[in-house]
From TrEMBL:
One of its GO terms (molecular function) is transmembrane transporter activity. Residues 302-333 are annotated as: Disordered. This is Putative solute carrier family 35 member SLC35F1/F2/F6. One of its GO terms (cellular component) is membrane. The keyword Cell cycle does not apply. SUPFAM superfamilies: Multidrug resistance efflux transporter EmrE (SSF103481). The keyword Cell division does not apply. InterPro entries: EmrE-like, SLC35_F1/F2/F6, SLC35F_Transporter. It comes from the Eukaryota. Keywords: Membrane, Transmembrane, Transmembrane helix, Transport. It is a multi-pass membrane protein. The chain crosses the membrane at residues 12-36, 48-64, 73-90, 102-121, 130-150, 192-211, 223-243, 280-299.
Length: 333
C-alpha cells in the first residue's frame, strides 16, 4: 500500500482530533487526581456539571430551531443512563485495583465496539483495519510492561472487584459510543448533545441524591476545590462536543483507539511539568499507537467497501433535503 493512499487529509484530521480528545481526557484525569488529593470523592457530581452545560447550550439551540426530534426521546433516556453509569464505574474502579489493570482492561471496549458496530451498524472491517487495531493494542501492552518493569504498580484493595468493575464500565462505554455513532449519523449532533445532557443530568441528579449527598455537604468549597471541579466540567464539555465529529468521520472504533494515548500524554506532562523520569518503552508505545491509528484510518476513500444501512439512509436524507451529495463514511467507520 502506498503512503499517499494511507496519509490523506481525512486521516490527518482524524488523528489530530483524536489526540486532542485524548489530551482532554488526560486533563480530566489530572483534575480528578487534584480533587482526590483534597479528599473529594464525588465522580457523579463532577459529571453532572458537564451534562448541565450540554443541556443548557445545545438545548438552547434545539429550542431555537423549533423542529421535532429525529429520534424517539426514550432512546436518549437509555443512552443517558448508560453514559452516566459508564463514567461512574470507570472512576470507581480506581479505588479497588491498580492503574495498570485499569489501563489494560479498559481496552475491552475496543473488541466490544468492533462487535457491536459489525452486528448493528453493519460495519465491514478489512484486514488493514484489523492490523491497525492490533498495532494500537500492542502499543498499550508495552505501556503495561513498562509500568511493571518500573515497579510502578500497586495491587489495590480488592483487585478482582476492581477488575470486574472496569470491565463492566468498558462494556457500557462501548455501548454508549456505538449508540452515539448511530444517532449522530441518523439524527443530529445538536439534538444528540442536548438530549444526552438533559437526561444525563437528570440521571446524575438522582444518583447524587442517593449516593453523594453526604459527600457534597462535607466539602469545604475553596478556590483549590472549585477550580479543579470547574476545569473537569469544561474539559468534559469540550470532549463531549467534539466526540460526535470524530464518530461521524471515522466511527467509534477510531475514537476508542485514539483514547489509548491518554495515559501516554499524562506521562509526557509528568516529564515536562514535574521533571519525572519514565521508562523508554513509553516512547515506543506512543509511536506504535500513532502508527496503528494511521493504518486504521488511512485510505478509507480508496476502499470499495459496501456502505452500511445507516450511511445509505443518510445519503438519501441529504439528497432529499439539500440536494447536495456528500460522501459518507461508509463501512470504513
Amino acid at each position: 500500500m502506498k503512503l499517499e493512499q494511507i496519509w490523506t487529509k481525512k486521516t490527518f484530521i482524524g488523528i489530530v482530533l483524536g489526540q486532542f480528545l485524548s489530551i482532554l481526557i488526560t486533563s480530566t484525569g489530572f483534575t480528578s487526581s487534584l480533587l482526590a488529593k483534597k479528599g473529594i470523592d464525588a465522580p457523579t457530581s463532577q459529571s453532572f456539571m458537564n451534562y448541565a452545560l450540554l443541556a443548557i447550550i445545545y438545548g438552547s439551540v434545539l429550542l431555537y430551531r423549533r423542529k421535532p426530534l429525529k429520534t424517539k426521546w426514550y432512546y436518549y433516556i437509555i443512552l443517558g443512563i448508560i453514559d452516566v453509569e459508564a463514567n461512574f464505574l470507570v472512576v470507581k474502579s480506581y479505588q479497588y485495583t491498580s492503574v495498570t489493570s485499569v489501563m489494560l482492561l479498559d481496552c475491552w471496549s475496543i473488541p466490544c465496539v468492533i462487535l457491536l458496530t459489525w452486528i448493528f451498524l453493519k460495519t465491514k472491517y478489512r484486514f488493514k483495519k484489523i492490523i491497525g487495531v492490533a498495532v494500537c493494542i500492542a502499543g498499550l501492552v508495552l505501556v503495561v510492561f513498562s509500568d511493571v518493569h518500573a515497579g510502578d504498580r500497586s495491587s489495590g484493595s480488592n483487585p478482582v472487584k476492581g477488575d470486574l468493575i472496569i470491565i463492566a464500565g468498558a462494556t457500557l462505554y462501548a455501548v454508549s459510543n456505538v449508540s452515539e455513532e448511530f444517532l449522530v449519523k441518523s439524527a443530529d449532533r445538536v439534538e444528540l448533545m442536548a438530549m444526552l445532557g438533559l437526561f444525563g443530568g437528570i440521571v446524575s441528579a438522582i444518583q447524587i441524591s442517593i449516593l453523594e449527598r453526604k459527600e457534597l455537604k462535607s466539602i469545604h468549597w475553596t478556590a483549590g476545590a472549585a477550580v479543579p471541579f470547574v476545569g473537569f466540567s469544561v474539559a468534559m464539555f469540550m470532549f463531549y462536543s467534539l466526540v460526535p465529529v470524530l464518530l461521524k468521520i471515522h466511527g467509534s472504533t477510531m475514537l476508542n483507539l485514539s483514547l489509548l494515548t491518554s495515559d501516554m500524554w499524562s506521562v509526557l506532562i509528568r516529564i515536562f511539568a514535574y521533571h519525572e523520569k519514565v521508562d523508554w518503552m513509553y516512547y515506543v508505545a506512543f509511536a506504535a499507537v500513532v502508527v496503528g491509528l494511521i493504518i486504521y484510518s488511512g485510505g478509507d476513500k480508496d476502499e470499495n467497501q459496501e456502505p452500511s444501512n445507516v450511511d445509505n439512509r443518510m445519503r438519501q436524507d441529504e439528497e432529499t433535503n439539500s440536494g447536495i451529495h456528500s460522501k459518507g463514511t461508509g463501512a470504513g467507520s
